[in-house]
Amino acid sequence: MKNDLLSDYFLNEFMPLHPSFTREDLMREFVKKANQLNLDTTAPELLFEAFTHKSFAHESKEELKDNERLEFLGDSVLQLVVSERLMDLHPTTKEGKLSKLRSSIVNESSLSALARHVKFQKLIMLGKGEYREKGHNKDSLLANCFEAYLGAVYLTHGLDTSRDRCLEIFQSYAQEHTDLFEMSSINDFDAKSRLQEKLMKLHKEVPKYSSVEVGHEKEKMFKISVSIKDQKLGELTHKSKKKGMQELARLVLKQMN
């Protein structure tokens, strides 16, 4: 494939695989895009692996490694870095609350938000099917990619550099969005559980959620409602049933407060 045509494919996002994409073509364009995002390309092969989804590796005629092993390693790096940071920031907080706060940080929702903040969606390499399903926007793929990236940084530069890079991303995210290390993050993490606790105290009964699919098949949405003792407390429409319930619980809690 001509270089200019390949560049068109990679202009904004990684596109579905093409039979004439050689490893050299992919690496060249990957490094170009990584440099645009100010990522360290000291070890380009390892960084390339961190952004290679298994669907891309399976469809490629080249022998490519996917990012699952790096994700496994990066998860451990992330757990350690976040735990250290929480210990420093909250020296008098007990273990149970620190564990809850760490869970509010090291989860699919938070990690995918961090990945989007540094534009990792522009680097994920996906197979045809995943690309058609807009896999570069899926929280699960972005969160996994974030962990794989940390794994790659750890293998390239060691723990100190991977810690610095990880905290740098958290700090940048805090400046534009919210500080995930603040204790208040716990309150936003599991609103559904907090609503249940509150309603149990008030009514001695747990809330009931219901959901109905609405919209077209390609843009499926869920109309979600929550009620207590047959009295509706709130309703919203969301593309994810699970996240929609959490968001609805947050809204109801806000109204109750």
What would you say this structure looks like, in words?
The chain is mainly α. The protein is built from 13 helices and 3 strands; from the N terminus they run H-H-H-H-H-H-H-H-H-H-H-H-E-E-E-H. The protein folds into 2 domains: 151 residues, Ribonuclease III domain (Ribonuclease iii, N-terminal Endonuclease Domain, Chain A, Orthogonal Bundle), CATH 1.10.1520; 67 residues, Double Stranded RNA Binding Domain. The protein has a 3-stranded antiparallel β-sheet with strand order 1-2-3, with helices on one face. The radius of gyration is 21 Å and the shape is flat.
In brief, what are we looking at here?
With about 260 residues, this protein is mainly alpha-helical. It has 13 helices and 3 strands. The N and C termini lie far apart (about 60 Å).
Helicity range of the residues? 55-70%
Order of helices and strands: HHHHHHHHHHHHEEEH
- Strand composition percent: 5-15%
Spatially, the strands of the biggest sheet line up as: 1-2-3
Instruction: List low-pLDDT spans.
Output: 1-12
The CATH architecture name of the largest domain reads Orthogonal Bundle
Rg computed from alpha carbons, rounded to a whole number of angstroms: 21 Å
SS field, number of helical segments: 13
Question: In angstroms, what separates the terminal alpha carbons?
Answer: 60 Å
CATH superfamily of the largest domain: Ribonuclease III domain
